[in-house]
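Q: What residues go here?
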């Protein structure tokens, strides 16, 4: 009789550990999937940037510093090796794209160009998707990190190799309100 009780308790514990492990795997896979969705949208943006730069070059060739900055930031995102570096490079690209669009304000013919308008519209839609996916990623990371840091997950997460993930934080520039003067 005692043996059956002990066997039942062991069985319940084994099932609990299996359920917990499977939940942690599911959450980790959701984090990986959320990052992949961001990566897809970043790649879409990287594909649009050269076309946008070439269009702007035709109208604003003397703005080479801004165009070179956008090109360098794009290359940094494309060559980033890990998620942390890619996040930092992506924030830099976002900043250089803002500079590029600020430059285009001085060129009414460029702003009226149908190709530029289409590229700008696609880039804006992609930026919106990236923003949404960043938010989704951060929500998923929070759920995952909470699961591996709270009881009983904390007891097994390290043992099974589950490590905390980093959220996608805004760049330092985005945290400072712009100085608007009229």
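A:
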């Amino acid at each position: 009789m005692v043996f059956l009780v002990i066997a039942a308790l062991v069985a319940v514990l084994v099932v609990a550990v299996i359920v917990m492990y499977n939940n942690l795997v599911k959450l980790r896979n959701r984090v990986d999937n959320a990052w992949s969705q961001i990566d897809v949208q970043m790649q879409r943006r990287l594909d649009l940037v050269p076309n946008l730069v070439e269009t702007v070059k035709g109208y604003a060739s003397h703005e080479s510093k801004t165009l070179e900055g956008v090109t360098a930031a794009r290359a940094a995102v494309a060559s980033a090796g890990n998620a942390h570096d890619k996040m930092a490079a992506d924030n830099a690209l976002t900043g250089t794209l803002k500079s590029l669009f600020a430059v285009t304000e001085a060129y009414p013919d460029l702003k009226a160009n149908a190709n530029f308008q289409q590229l700008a519209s696609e880039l804006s839609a992609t930026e919106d998707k990236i923003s949404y996916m960043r938010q989704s990623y951060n929500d998923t990371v929070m759920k995952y990190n909470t699961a591996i840091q709270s009881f009983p997950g904390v007891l097994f997460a390290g043992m099974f190799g589950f490590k905390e993930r980093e959220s996608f934080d805004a760049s330092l520039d985005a945290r400072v309100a712009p100085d608007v003067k009229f």
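A: Context that may help when evaluating the design: Confidence is low (pLDDT under 50) at residues 177-182. The helical segments are 2-59, 64-79, 83-104, 108-112, 114-149, 153-157.
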